[in-house]
Amino acid sequence: MHEILHAARQLFAAEGYAGLSMRRLALTLNMSLSNVQHYYKSKDILVDAMLMYTMNIFQAKIDNIAQTMQQASRIDQFNSTIEMFLDELSDPVTHGVFFEIWALAERNVFASELMDKMIARERKTIFKLIQGLVPDISDEQAKLRAVLIVAQVEGLMLFRLHKNVPQKEVAEIHTALRKSVLNLATVP
27, 66, 80, 181 — which has fewest CB within 10 A? Predict the structure, then answer.
């Protein structure tokens, strides 16, 4: 199944929702259509599974940061998580998947619900990292700040930095983002 989801991500990122068909996916994988449909009965079920697969990849990377950095400060863990998000959103496949879901979510209830799941998961992850870092920040304030941090990171993806912006400017924007989200996480 991971092979199907991986290929679906590639097609979805390159061709968008309209370009992803069960038949084309089967051809890409050199499988029968019925074999693909055995695992995913419809395109929407496939897209849902593909997005969950993508979110699980992110979560595994976040869990790995937490596990390998157990002795590090939570701020260092937070910074490493932000770096992981920036690296992932700079990847053309990840960028293509999220850009397409964002666009689709504006006019499609199914895609909107998927996006809501993804955003909620990201906010929860960031909230857990910043909760209690600064005693003067209540849980409610930390939740609000997590929303703002996710919005800034996701906003960079929508800004399409990797397409037309010179690398020097991308580096400057990433530096500014790091400073901004660190302030949101730590300044009372």
Answer: 27
